Amino acid sequence: MNNDEKYMREAIKQAKKAAKNGEVPIGCVIVYNGLSSGRVAVQEIKERMKEFEGLIVGRGYNRRNTDKCTLSHAEITAIKKASKKLGDWRLEGCTMYVTLEPCQMCAGAIIQSRIDRVVIGAMNPKAGCAGSILNLLQMKEFNHRCEMEKGVLEEECSALLKVFFSGLRS
Predict the structure, then answer these.
(1) How many angstroms separate the CA atoms of 115 and 93, rounded?
(2) Distance CA 60, CA 51 (A)
(3) With helix as H, strand as E and coil as C, how does 21-55 read?
(4) Is the pTM above the cut of 0.85?
(5) 75 carries an active-site annotation
(6) Contact residues for 163 (Cβ-Cβ < 8 A; gap 6+)
(7) Which of 44, 51, 53, 75 is flagged as catalytic?
(8) CA distances from 165 to 34, 70, 94, 158 (A)
(9) How confident is the model over 45-66, as pLDDT tens digits?
């Protein structure tokens, strides 16, 4: 199993927490990989951050109904937690693993937080903004763009959503 699958399985665990709470099963984790040598960062910041390399620094799952808040998406929660843990709003050197393609709000937050890479399980043809409707993550007009990997454990991520929504219909 490669790292993308390993961390997507962690995002799936988060999605299952959402499902247990009656929420749409979407989960997310953020992993800090370290700053590349080309990054402009003060040496003391690079040293402080080394302790987080290879670790999950943020986790989140969908909580919109629980929190009664539009902003309680898995990605937003994971970004808040990662920022707090790393002590910076800039999440350079991080990879986000998310079970469903981010919406426009989350894609905007990903760009604003400077996450380097996003790994997506299932695509979202009705609301996805990482290629399905728009690709906000790679627009050349923005000052930051993310690398993307799509379809990691796609069948498992899709199955969570299909089971959840078929349960609602029955």
Answers:
(1) 7
(2) 21
(3) CCCCCCEEEEEECCCCCCCCCCHHHHHHHHHHCCE
(4) yes
(5) yes
(6) none
(7) 75
(8) 38, 19, 31, 11
(9) 666 677 788 889 999 999 999 9
